[in-house]
Amino acid sequence: MQADRRRAFAVLLVRRLAGALWLLTSAAVAQTPYTPADERQALSAASPLRGLAATGAASASTPSAAESAEQALRLAQQALELGRARADPRWFGVAEAALQSWESVPTPPPAIQRLRAVLRQRRHDFAGALADLDALLLADPDDSQARLVRAVIHAVQGRPQQSQADCLRLIGASSLLLATTCLANARGLLGQAVPMLAALEGQLQSPAGLDAGAEERRWALTVAAELAVRLQRPAQASRYYAEALALASRAQVEDVYLQASWADFQLAQGEAARVERGLRRTRSDLTLLRLAIAERRLAEAGQLAFQSRWQAHAEELEARFQLARQRGESGHGREEALLALALRDDPLQALRHSERNWQLQREPADARLLLESAIAAGRPDAAEPVRAWLRSTGLEDLALRRLAGLEAP
Amino acid sequence: MSAALMARGTGLWLCLLALLLPTPPAAAHAGSTAYLFAQVEGAGLSLRWDLALRDLDLALGLDADGDGEIRWGEVRAMQAAIRGYAGSRLSVMADGHVCVLRVEPGLQIADRRDGRYAVLQLRAECPRRPGQLLLGYQALFDLDASHRGLLRLRYGSDAQDSQSGSFAPDRRQLRFGAEPGVFGPLGQYLVEGIEHVLGGWDHLLFLLALFLPAALRWSGGRWQPVSGLKPVLLHSATLVTAFTLAHALTLCLVALEAFRLPSRWVESAVAASVLFAGLNNLWPMVQQRLHWLAAGFGLIHGAAIAGALLELGLPLQGRVSALLGFNLGVELAQLSLVLLLVPVGYVLRERPGYRRWLLRPGSWLVAAAGLIWLIDRLFAMNWPLPI
């Protein structure tokens, strides 16, 4: 026992050292400045919003308040659209900068406050986002956009009842598919997964649902797929995932949340090779993490070519999270916990990250991470908050309940 | 029903649905980051600044021909604008003084994980070797609220000895070096005090004049050797301590701006004190109360150094500990000189040659130097003399 632990520690230490060396050398190589030989050499793709300094929010001329609000809003919307389509967070920073004149204004124009709420939510300032949304809904209870955003935040933060209340107000104020998706998302956390999945399936097959916008339908399919996974209906989940992924690729949108959700489903089914094929060229944190896990499984199943690949990807992710910490970002808790648990064999570290993450986000995925980390770290009592949450919500995630040692609801 | 309601301009909002799902803030690529490596070198700071080409493109528009690619030729053509942008978005202050920032000519490229960066070399010239540094950073915050400037600062050549920080829209200044606590300025100014004694010729010559006859006593119209090293060392230590105490008194009064003396007169008085100390060895005028003489000179030297110290930029917080440190440094350096020089004088004191070849010529030298300084400072001759 003692010897085992010592050996595990030694392995960990060697890995750490190797990782640090790799980082040091790769950083040194990559950073040496040079002078390109060819004038025509393309160094970087140009920004679709060229020379913001000259045209955008930082304009030298002083337009009227209404004009500048209009301009800022347009710029922020353009930037958000770019960030969304390319899964590139840099554009969210640009959008925020465009709105920075309103950053400390308590009640900006509603259109600006809505965008501000979304941006705050993006950088995990949930309290700031909720303050904006509460103010918007107080001024105009029929603001269905603010209603929808608040419903999603409540669900993400583990308040399904409040989410459900907001979703109910969407009925009649937005498309039925959207309202149903919102409700399925909330009530799926409240022990209503079976009827909500049936309702959602019905809406997806209805003429209006089949006719709905691609974004709307993709969200509905993602929620349906996750419900089906929790209810252990893999064939149904596969069908939803396949259509959602096809919609995203047709729209040339990189929906990293959807891809990661699909990969988790496939990994749970033991389909590491399929995940590796699907995500081979991915760059985003969420999907790179799943790719590395798939590669590790393949390596351990005897395909040794994947050994160095998964290790390099794990180092890459570690370097990214370190950069994020240096930048003072928070909100990588879920991914950092998964990295520590699945790739670093460091359950104590995973437990620390997932405990911190549980304070911010409380979805089934967050609950699973905290449970798995606590069990792996030999401290199952640390997951008591998850058990309490499972009991109070009645969540029908059979695998999660089994992990928590609870009966099916 | 739904189609009609959906037509009310919620298109963008549905697009945003994907954004609401729980992904970390920087899901795919890193947010905009610039890297600054700063090294204290001589009287200033040498900096390397890596700015992402896509960030510079956002700020300045680098794709001149609009083909969607930023090419090396286009970057080169914009060099002046890029250097101007960088130069106007960074500031360096050292010990309360603005340092002059220069962006060196030339620009290179570096490959990083998230794309290519322009590498600029900068130099900040400060009045002297920086102690406490205040760096101000303004790049890109007006265009990208998620921009961060990551800084690594090294004071010495030791890689371990580096400090780091990150500039953000709500943190546009970073302070490094001596902490405004008690130990920081104390230690820093202690070193200043030691350097002041060992680096200033007037101070050294004055001390030399005091110590040359330390192992001798003037009695019966001639220098007599003193027996026993202990009284000699004690006597010398009393002298330098009297000097330091008086020195500390005026230094504190002037540095705390209780009063200010015209520097020309103070500097001239310092020169006169050196002249007097030399002459006093040749034709002893004051011997019994030599410590009072030392104290008097201490007052003058203190007033002189206070002006210089004020220009050094005394930190506002911790002024008292800075002054304490400086005076302790002065005392420490002087006592070490006592321990170093006085025993030598003691060993040699019985030799007849000591008086003839060391005491007399040395005192003449000190007196001459004092006289030259006196004339130079009194009449503002601006001769190129060491201080």
Automatic annotation (TrEMBL), chain A:
Signal sequence coordinates: 1-30
Keywords: Signal
Statement: the UniProt record of this protein carries the keyword Signal: yes
Top-level taxonomic group: Bacteria
SUPFAM superfamilies referenced in this protein's UniProt entry, alphabetically: TPR-like
Name the record gives this protein: Tetratricopeptide repeat protein
Lineage: Bacteria, Pseudomonadati, Pseudomonadota, Gammaproteobacteria, Nevskiales
TrEMBL record, chain B:
Coiled-coil parts of chain: none
InterPro entries, A to Z: Put_HupE_UreJ
Signal as UniProt keyword: yes
TM helices/strands, residue ranges: 200-220, 232-259, 265-283, 290-310, 322-348, 357-375
Keyword field contains Membrane: yes
Signal peptide feature range: 1-30
Keywords: Membrane, Signal, Transmembrane, Transmembrane helix
Name of the protein: HupE/UreJ family protein
